[in-house]
Fold:
Amino acid sequence: MGYGMRVAIVGATGQLGHSLCSAFADWDVTPLGSADCDVADYETVMSTMYACGPDLIVNAGAMTAVDACESEIDRAFAVNAIGPRNLALAANALGADLVHVSSDYVFEGTAGRPYDEWDEPWPLGVYGRSKLGGEREVQTIRPASYVVRTAVLISTQAPNFALSILRAADGDSKLQVVSDQVGSPTYAPHAAAAIRRLAVSGRYGLYHVAGTGSCSRADLARELLGAAGHDASRVEDVTTELMVAAYPAPRPANSALDCRAWRLHGWEPLPTWQEGVRDLLADLARQQPVTPEQPLPNADTARAEPPRVRVSEDLDVTDGSDAPDAPPPRAASPAGREQEPR
Ligand SMILES: NC(=O)c1ccc[n+]([C@@H]2O[C@H](COP(=O)([O-])OP(=O)(O)OC[C@H]3O[C@@H](n4cnc5c(N)ncnc54)[C@H](OP(=O)(O)O)[C@@H]3O)[C@@H](O)[C@H]2O)c1
Structure:
């Protein structure tokens, strides 16, 4: 496989999809967003794939809004489980190879060590259950395929956690970030390069593809701020419990990934998550050169009571003081969980 080959990239408008389009730039790429090909619709998937006739299908499309999945359960399974089923059926019909991207959220997060490909999944929420469903659909319908679990994607493509942190850094607020959720941050171009390598290897199977190492979301925020020349001490550790009203979906406490299968094939590990942060910032600087007119970071840290901004594990930055959908934190109930309307 290689030059002149055709690849259909599903989810091409997302953060990983953008990087995949670049990683396969020397191929004949058909980039597909949800408007081009709704993976939940069998007829659409078949007609789209027959029209573009790919040698390889890469599925980076998903319903990734973890909290919305809790209330839109059918939609989550339609996109994240039936979608991969439809793509596997199309791959079979066309004789195309298939890479399907999954998530560290298939794990419960209580092992106390990084999870490898042979650990038993045990998802906590609807998103994780639907992603595990998608993996199983692909593995059942098209066993000769690549299922790739990645984690905590950061990229130059908004929206994502890293850009939310960097955007918030332009103010003078304290940034409240959860410190009790650990994962393996992965720079999307690093994952895309690894996926490309896998896709031409013929070594089908399940792989973890994530930045080397792991950290909490708060430590990731500190690394981002520090490396970008901001004051990393503006990051304030908060617990998941404090965020549960605004972000109700259960999340694994420690879903760090060990890319054991990748390593055992003799491939060099992916760059560390800190290298991912540096590469992200370098790519951002190339896209948006820093100008003297931009506000300097941390101009007012001497304020006695700086405003606090809560940064969710996924995307959003909410001003904890007045955002209507993010009420100020309250003391946890004796049962350990606040009773908050969704
Ligand atoms: N983000 C993370 O931290 C993370 C962590 C672990 C695993 N993953 C997995 O990595 C993959 C890529 O994630 P990402 O962060 O790049 O996602 P993203 O930025 O949220 O983008 C999601 C992509 O999925 C597409 N999509 C949504 N519904 C679709 C549908 N019904 N049919 C076809 N395409 C649809 C979207 O298309 P439109 O924009 O056109 O609607 C978009 O291109 C996903 O499988 C995700 O589960 C992500």
